[in-house]
Amino acid sequence: MYTLKQLESGELKGITRLQIVAELTEFPRAIFSLADSLEILDLSDNQLSSLPDDFDQLSQLRILFLSQNKFTEIPAILGKCPKLEMIGFKANQISYIAEDALPDHTRWLILTDNQLSHLPESFGRLTQLRKLALAGNQLVDLPESMAHCQALELVRLSANQLRHIPEWLLDLPRLSWLAFAGNPFSHVEECLNDSVPMIHPDNLQLNEQLGQGASGIIYKAHWVNKPQLYQHLPDDVAVKIFKGAITSDGYPADELDCCLTTGKHKSLIPAIGQIHHGETLGLVMSLIPCGYQNLGLPPSLVTCTRDTFAAGTLFTLDAITHIAKQMADTLKHMHQQQISHGDIYAHNIMIDDTFKVLFGDFGAASNLSNLPNSQSQKMHRIEVRALGCLLEDLLGLILPENPEYHSEKYQQLTALAFECMQDSSASRPDFSCLLKQLNTILPVYD
């Protein structure tokens, strides 16, 4: 992060990335002195409501983040920026997008937590768009022209006012990660699932923070007073306390409902209780045993929708197959309960040194029970594509100099990933079929 003083002094000449947080109410024109080099501009967490009419002077700019500001519309000048492809306006007050406000080559657009009720027909021109986040708006429909957005892979539509899921959306050839909970046809005002007991927060002492995601913070907790009813539960547990009324993926009540509706599976992090107390909503879970670590890392600005991995990460083909088998079985179980996960990524999967899987994070999950059966089946195949992407990413870690790269098993797994990622969802296997094929490749795993 830099300061205005550094910018105005000329000290930053030639930099490619600039971030300033300084309660800005006007765009600092000194930024134009970086026009020949600046590729990434982050002015989030300021008080901006407009951009200058000559903003397109920033001819090298590829990425622009303006989250947590006061914009009420997308500045139309962005449509003239020659290289701008990644745009973020999370948590503004945007209610209007002009027809020509976005560059045709946009590939990543974040408009979470705004006030949009409609999108312009010109969205259909965004044929390179891969990632689109629209959760937490007031959208009542999507323009039919978006059927031309054939490159879309990740779409977030939770917490809007959509009355249905358009058929063309489910037919997009590359769509792999879709979330739509919290719309009138799918939203639950309050999770009424009683499959796990209600636990009063006073019975638990929250200790160190274990993790944090878009929807909440996870703590390690210990019982202060364990009621007789809960004597069978572990002494130490994990507690997820949900954030506020809405998150980047939707409403906490929908996440809790999807998690509890999914029920138990050996590869899912067990839910053992729920908290409903005043404004506090939480989920009590078993602690993840020692020795587990994340399978991968989140996508980067370069990979956009695909996970990354630490340098030197390598798995054997047997380990990859074992992981894929467990995930296929888990997702088969979820879809039998009419729940889609929406976020099937390596960074949401934990493994131990035997490659045993624990899967969680239901922030982008959706309940499919109110969809027509045909749409539910398409959601199933969309998630099959996501698993195909995961398999492809893991196989990509095996380089040509590795003897396994030239093996029959590698060819079989590569062909299976391709089958899962076919453009026509009807041509993809379901999870039951996928599991059978994986079992043929690796019947058992020690």
TrEMBL record:
ATP binds at residue 240. The keyword Phosphoprotein does not apply. Gene3D superfamilies: Phosphorylase Kinase, domain 1, Ribonuclease Inhibitor, Transferase(Phosphotransferase) domain 1. SUPFAM superfamilies: L domain-like, Protein kinase-like (PK-like). Keywords: ATP-binding, Kinase, Leucine-rich repeat, Nucleotide-binding, Repeat, Transferase. This is Leucine-rich repeat-containing serine/threonine-protein kinase. One of its GO terms (molecular function) is kinase activity.
